């Protein structure tokens, strides 16, 4: 992974190329944030702010290089009203310390509605204890509900169930998964 470069100043939202409008983030959540951090949409320059480093807390996050990362950012933004990735930035270092995503799955059921899927919640180990995970979940749930989702769902490990219950989620049914075997070729679709 590329080395991290630390900034001496915090970059305001107005100076960034964002994935979506920061106005979609609950003002209540913004007001409840720890004063040392700021919550905002993912920006096109967040590769340099350690986005992949924070995601690596969850699982393997190989570095595709900045050009591929930016290309993927542009792909997500082109799918308007679908992907909402939030980041929490440490104001002193201008580095990402928390991340999370909600994406909207369009459905024919429930009067042509949608379901919000929360994914990739991660908080840097040095920033835990500031309720950043809770605030990320609250912000993503707000976006999901205000986008018309009839439910917001997520998958988690058994050890994280108590945390998500504190966030207002309830255990329901079971997750099934089938992982694609590793292969040396690129996807066909």
From TrEMBL:
GO cellular component, as recorded: endoplasmic reticulum membrane
UniProt membrane topology term: Peripheral membrane protein
Subunit structure: Homodimer.
Catalytic activity: D-glucosamine 6-phosphate + acetyl-CoA = N-acetyl-D-glucosamine 6-phosphate + CoA + H(+)
Acyltransferase found in the keyword field: yes
Key words, A-Z: Acyltransferase, Endoplasmic reticulum, Membrane, Transferase
Subcellular location: Endomembrane system; Endoplasmic reticulum membrane
Protein name stated in the entry: Glucosamine 6-phosphate N-acetyltransferase
Record organism: Lyophyllum shimeji (Hon-shimeji)
Pathway recorded for this protein: Nucleotide-sugar biosynthesis; UDP-N-acetyl-alpha-D-glucosamine biosynthesis; N-acetyl-alpha-D-glucosamine 1-phosphate from alpha-D-glucosamine 6-phosphate (route I): step 1/2
Entry-linked CDD domains: NAT_SF
GO molecular function, a single term: glucosamine 6-phosphate N-acetyltransferase activity
Domain called N-acetyltransferase: residue spans: 37-189
EC number: 2.3.1.4
Family according to the record: Belongs to the acetyltransferase family. GNA1 subfamily.
An individual GO BP term: UDP-N-acetylglucosamine biosynthetic process
């Amino acid at each position: 992974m590329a080395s991290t470069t630390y900034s001496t100043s915090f970059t305001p939202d107005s100076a960034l190329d964002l994935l979506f409008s920061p106005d979609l983030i609950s003002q209540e959540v913004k007001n409840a944030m720890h004063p040392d951090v700021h919550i905002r949409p993912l920006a096109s320059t967040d590769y340099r702010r350690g986005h992949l480093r924070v995601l690596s807390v969850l699982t393997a996050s190989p570095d595709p290089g900045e050009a591929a990362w930016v290309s993927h950012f542009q792909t997500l933004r082109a799918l308007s009203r679908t992907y909402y990735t939030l980041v929490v930035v440490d104001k002193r270092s201008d580095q990402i310390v928390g991340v999370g995503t909600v994406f909207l799955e369009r459905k024919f059921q429930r009067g042509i509605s949608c379901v919000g899927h929360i994914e990739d919640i991660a908080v840097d180990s040095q920033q835990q204890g500031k309720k950043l995970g809770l605030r990320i979940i609250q912000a993503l749930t707000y976006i999901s509900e205000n986008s018309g989702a009839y439910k917001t769902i997520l998958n988690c490990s058994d050890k994280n169930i108590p945390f998500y219950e504190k966030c207002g989620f309830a255990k329901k049914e079971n997750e099934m998964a089938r992982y694609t075997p590793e292969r040396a070729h690129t996807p066909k679709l």
